Every structure is written in structure tokens, then in C-alpha cells.
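Quick one: structure for this chain?
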Amino acid sequence: MKTKKNHLICQFKITLNGIEPPIWRRIQVPATYSFWDLHVAFQDAMGWLDYHLHEFRISKAQKSKIEKIGIPDDDFEKNYLAGWDIPISNYFKEPGKTALYEYDFGDRWEHEVLLEAILLKEKAQYPKCIAGERSCPPEDCRGVPGYYDLLNVLSNPNNDEYQEMINWLKGHAKNYYPYEPDKFNPEHVHFDNPKKRWMNAFPEAVRR
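Got it. Here's what it folds into:
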């Protein structure tokens, strides 16, 4: 007998591209999730603040056209499918399926997404983060090159930009000071309610 989707979870590994040692997370989410729900889980697990636009780039099958799933916007030429309308099960059908998830089209943080397993639900709260390594880069640090510049400055208190960088970390919308790039604890991840996040992001749609 085929197991119903509401009895299943999907286990993903998300790895931030272009950075060594790698920054990655392993999370489990309900198989009934939409791509919007998955986006929120990725943001919370990685440690992003969901300030910027995002997109998933994924195909339904091998060699088929890459589709873009995110937030439709008439001001952009890209044709996006609305993530809240698309179940992840339409694309992530078996372990080994991959996708790209990009966050912040200015800093261009690209993440490799791998579906590692489809599992039976246990008596647990989902989504949950079960593993990962290293801290998320601070928002708006100018992408991978800026991240490496940040680490270089912080490694040398005699650097001319050291105090300026410390002040920037302290004065950020999220206080990143002290920034500890090697630190991560999956037990400290808090997952927001994706429906609540959507209602806060699109209040005009909620009022209609």
C-alpha cells in the first residue's frame, strides 16, 4: 500500500556554494510542504533573515527544462512559479534529486539542495534541523568575496578596518557580534510558521 504524504518527511542537505570549509545544514520537513514552506525552513536553518528575494531552480525530470520557483513580480523579467502554489512533492520524488536555491540576488548566495531521503514520520516536531556545520555569513556582507574579506579583517585586530567591521556587526539588524564562523548548534535552530511568514510578507493578499 502506498504511504500517504502526510505520513512522510523529506530529509534535505543544504550546502552554501563557494565556501570552504563548507557551511551546510541537514533538515527534515513534512513531505506536504510547498516550496514557500521549504524556503522558510531553509532560511531558518541556515540563519538567514529572509530580507531578500529568492528562487529555486529545478527540473521535474532529467534533461527537462529548468523551472524557477519563487515570488512572482511584474517588475522582473524572470517568469517565476509562485512557491506557495507548488508542492515540493511535484519535483522531489526520490532521493538523489537536486536543485539550486539562490537567496539575495545582490550578494548571490547559491545553495546546493539535495534530497537525501524520504522517511516515515516519527513522534517529533517538524521541521527540524538534525545536523550542520559552521555559522551562516552575516546578511549583506557582499557575497562570497565579502565573506572572505570579513574573515580576513576579523583575524587581525591591527587591521585598519577591524573596528569598523566590529561596529558594523554590532549595529546590524541582527547583532552578529561576536561573529564565530566555526560555531553552529542544530538544537538552537528555531523554525518559524511558514503560513505566518507568508501573511506577514504579503498582508495585502491576506486582506483580499
